[in-house]
Amino acid sequence: MKNNKIYLSVFFIFLFNIIGAVALCFPSLREVILKLTPLNLLLILGIFLYANNDFSLSFLKTILVVFIIGYFMEVLGVRFKFIFGEYYYGETLGLKILNTPLIMGVNWLTLSVSTFGIAAYIFKPKILIVIAASVLMVLTDMLIEPISASLDFWHWKNSVIPTQNYIAWFLFSLIIHSIILKFDAKPNPFLCFALLGSQILFFIIQFINYGIV
Questions:
Q1: Is there a smaller number of Cβ atoms within 10 Å at the N or the C end of the chain?
Q2: pLDDT digits (tens, 9 = 90+) for 109-126
Q3: Which domain holds residue 192?
Q4: Nearest-CA neighbor of 208 among 24, 27, 31?
């Protein structure tokens, strides 16, 4: 029964991301689908948490702390432009507080937990888990950045993605993954592969859609 729940959840995680990615290829649907982006991110996170089936105080603390850190890093990033570089958020990601969409906390949470779960599945030494997960975070960000402006996620000054953005992502990822490790969180690796893999697939489809590849 447990495996069935996980397999079904993996199916829906991929399904929602693929439907969204393909729908964006149709100009008549683009505006509607983009407005649903925050809902889609929340829905996928909800599916992940449901299937992961860990509602222990330790895991709940983990997701709350990672959400808060991820969100306020972005708040500081927008306010103090020397952290990631100079950028601003578009309207796609929904409700903003302090010029930062709340959903960015969810974005950091899903990416952090999924990359940690994958790294923990592959590596055993704690230091390697933290480093590998952080590298995965940066590589994922490198995939997202070139398409972010086209989707009105966020926009960089002069449309140039600064190197400091990736350096900051790596350093903050080290901190976040160290915290996840400290809380001894153990997300299901199968779900983590699905969570990250479906997002990568989403952006690959967008690369093809916008003729970037």
A1: N
A2: 999 999 999 999 999 999
A3: 2-209
A4: 24
